[in-house]
User: Fold these one by one.
Assistant:
Number 1:
Amino acid sequence: LDHKELLLHYQPQVNLTNGTILGLEALVRWNHPQKGLILPGSFIETVEAMPLISRLGRYVLDTAMTQQEEWDRSGLKVRISVNIGARHFLSGSFRKDLEELLSVHESRRQTPERMVIEITETETFRDLLLVQEMAEFCRDRGFFLSLDDFGTGQASLTALQKMPVSEIKVDRGFVRRILQNEKDRAIVASLLAAGQMMGIDVVAEGVETEEEGRILVGMGCRWGQGYAISPPLSPEQVPGWIGSWSPPPSWIDGAVF
């Protein structure tokens, strides 16, 4: 952070059958001067256990808002999701950071609904009342809220019903096993059904193969992200990718909705 070695890449989230772009998830990378590009799996767990996670979260929010404004000026209107660590999200500094960034990025005051605050269910739901309070704080300022890794943590469907959540993301572990494991396929189907009944978008994470995408489409899954769609892209790569993306024919032919 001090040496400005962090940057963001963006992974598309798409409609699996018609090519509509739902948005982009901002993913942080460490551009190390000796080791090159380091993915967050190598450092983010350590950072999340430190007060430094709040500073990192603010950096990612600020950078994503700046990038969105640059794309807006070029005519590219996209939604961006930003992961916020549990320690930061549940702290008083998150309120302050969000208010200050909205002041700095004046255009976001007009269109905050194109920014999504994404929190991980497994870490965040240790204090349900505080989670609900912070979720309502984000909603009142116009931000959407997404629950990452849904189905692996402590959040119940009752809690989900009470919170202003617009999206849940099916954990990639379930998606990875839907081809071999009937129980995992049943879990994904139940999450899709719950989302439909509650009016909540369900995004399948970790769609790594065309076959996984085909199975998800056949189950009625509308939204997905993963390497079968696109790897994370640099900001410069995003406009070209959006102009050329189309789903595989097997996904279009298998649609049931």
Number 2:
Amino acid sequence: IEVAVLRAVRTGTAQAAGNMSLTDMEERDWDLIRVSAHIGARYGDGGENPGNHFWWQGKLYSRSGRDKRYPPFVETTGYGTGEGLCGWNCRHSFGPGDPNHNPFKDFDAEENRRVYDLSQRQREMERRIRHTKTKLIALREGIEATEDAGVKASLEAEYAKTAKLLERQNEAYNKFCEDNKLKRLAERIEVAKWTRADTRKSFAAVKESSPFDELKEYSGKITVVEAFSGKDYVVKIDQIPTISGVTKHFSENLVQKADRAGLTLEAAQSIINNNRLILYQSERKTLKFLADNGYAVLNLQNQLVTAVPEKLRKKYRDYLEAGQNGAKS
């Protein structure tokens, strides 16, 4: 309902303003119309049609179609249709035009596509956050309504798991906005029944959850051996993982840092295969594989986060040697 209301208000306001502009121009018999332009306009299928807002934005049109020097306004822009100018969620406007004056900037097609695609990725992340909040509300209502202890315990476990998911989604959303210089739109991640009490309950559920909850979803079986230092834990994995891909962080480090220049995926996989120690970094939710000639870090989707060729540090050697001496004694 939040999305429907927002779309209705935004689209309705644009259509009302557009109809007023057209009526005003008709009364004054003004024929030329200038359509606004902005970066990140939707490009549809890329063709010359009303669904490609980038194609028709910023140009002059003939309102009546009588001035053959300019394309007809309605037919070209799709004004009055859902996919066209002032249609669903359209942010364009228009008004009386002047061939000698264009206040709108021309935008590069590739840059426009990049910005639009980023905005769509942002919308997708916002949809997922709203969906998770809606699920948490339903779980909370179920917990409060049931009198069956077994059902309540099951719902509470699912609530804690979903609250943790919401935390990760919020963190990912904030980082995505920061990395791509996008404004965080708080109104787009709200749902009607989500209250401050829900926020507090969600935070409390995350705080009470185990730092190892994420490991239950990992592809291989992980056994926590003991705490190492801080929030790092020594773990064992039943099957050594294979790198499934790389993160943006890894790609950037590969380019920017000289000591990583010669590092291949094969070299990183070799470090993982020949590890002497595996740590679960609970704050970062990553697995750190330490070998004699370097270390590699995977996220829980087995994507390579970073890899560094270096000698095994003293604190790790001391730990391993202590373990060997203990076994001998």
